[in-house]
Amino acid sequence: MTAEERHDLIRRYREGYRVMNESLAGISEEELDRSADGEWTPRQIVHHVADSEMMGAIRLRRLLVEAPPVIHGYDEKAFAERLTGDRPIEPSLQAIRWARESNSQLLDRMTDADWTIVGTHSESGSYGTEDWLRIYATHAHDHAAQISRALGRS
What we know:
The protein is built from five helices and three strands; from the N terminus they run ααβααββα. By secondary structure, it is mostly helical. The chain has one domain: Up-down Bundle (Four Helix Bundle (Hemerythrin (Met), subunit A)).
């Protein structure tokens, strides 16, 4: 990954909270639990992204601190089915916001050597800091688009 590609992905990562928030603009409580396309509901999506962001925050820290880093997978579907229910989304939106802010501080301080760290993911094998950035830079954007589809806005 070039420095320019990394810079672009970090910029995109930083925009994730705003993009999620914009996808929810004007949503009603009823719409939080509807899906026009049979995918997850907006409520499930917001809670999923928050769960993922909190996992991602730990993953980044493990990559930067542990030697060798081991990244553990988790059952995203089970989390979405068991932990979303009718919970309000605001705490999860704030979890997204502050996980990304905290991670952005770390990204700003990473050295060239930090970007070469590679560990092992329990489900997919090799997993490094660049992999982490590629995944999380687009994650909120992808799910914001999914919210728009669920609401029939796209």
